Amino acid sequence: MVITMLKRKIINDFVVWKNKKNKKPLIVYGARQVGKTTAIREFGKNYYDLLIELNFITDTRYKDIFSNGLDYKTIKENLTLYTNLKIVPGRTLLFLDEIEECPNAITALKFLSMQNELDIISSGSLLGLHYKEVKSYPVGYVDYLKLYSLDFEEFLWAFNVDSSIINNLRDKFNKREKINDGINLKMLEYFRKYIVIGGMPEVVTTYLQSNDYSQVYDKISAILEGYRNDIAKYADNSEKTKATLCYDSIPLQLAKENKKFTYKLVEKNGRSSKYLGSLNWLEDANFITLCYNIKQVNLPLLIYKDQSSFKVYTNDTGLLLGMFRDRNISNIIINNDLGVYNGALIENVILKELLCHNHTVYYYNRNNSLEIDFIISFNGKPLPIECKASNNKAKSLLTFLKENPDLYGIKFINGNVGVKGNIISLPLYMAMFL
User: Fold this and answer.
1) CATH code matching the domain that covers 10-146, chosen among 3.40.630.30, 1.10.357.10, 3.40.50.300, 3.10.690.10
2) What b/e sequence results for 12-48 when a residue is b if at least 16 CB atoms lie within 10 Å of its CB, and e otherwise?
3) pTM of the entire structure?
4) Which of 53, 141, 225, 252 has the most CB atoms lying inside 10 A of its own CB?
């Protein structure tokens, strides 16, 4: 399938990187099929006279460029020999795709950072990276950018929602003003579509071209199968089965009221000592996000992180939906009845938006008597966040804010903007502005 060109925010990040005086090679990482290669290729073609693209999977011969010397002079000569392209100083982008397949290329980034003739971007999921094979990792010589699947604003761009509408909504968010009911209902409808379709570029394109949720489901199922194949291919032998079991347990983990990850849902007598390494592998592969509990709600949040207590989310709600293996679920959601999927999907989609906006996200559970869905650091203070599929009272948030009157909280709801005391209610889709 030819993927429709989707507008991505990361292009702006690339431009900022390009304009740095003493830029380092850039490593763009993220899960497979989130659009890394497409975005870098578009950037290279639009902002450089010459794009040299080396994919170490599709053409393994490119590994030889880095096999007999990692200094810039040797690499430059090999590049010219293998590609028959002449580097244009200051106007050439070297794109090293699937760089984890070439450990020598990773080491070479350290030496390539010291030249000023060409800009370098590498990308990969880092799934197949064996750190022992990398002779010298370029710590301090590279910059990093993580790419997720489309966030909700990018999703709206794909559906040609006018930027003036989004800007007006952003203004309402900043002023905490109620949204016109017709616009609010339409945006909530778009958000439910986003929950169902997710942000994987190929899945979004499938819907745009077909308007068929059945084809969306099939595409999501194919991606999930590809992820399972990646686990089988790249995970160590001791982790393959365990990582797959952990990954497949996520819908069960999120469907229960207490969403703390429970090893017994992976295996009857499952324990941390057996499965924690597999979860860490899945997170390193960018398949999942571990959201940790904090013991106190004080800044910096990191020092109160409880390593033994966490919730596990997928990095795309479309994929989570596919993991429920219910082809008819899209009809339920589009008709505004999330049913048993309420908590799992709403929490997951809000978390995804927060991650896309570079927030480090925690949750707070106090002795199983009070739980706040998410806590982030925002404007120099902890910000508690609750996610509701309706507009029900958030009892834990109310209790927490009574105990912490100097803070305010946000409640994302299937409704309109409202302010009551120190709780701000916002439509679910306004997470894109936080």
Assistant:
1) 3.40.50.300
2) ebbeebeeeeeebbbbbbbbbbbbbbbbbbbbbeebb
3) 0.94
4) 53
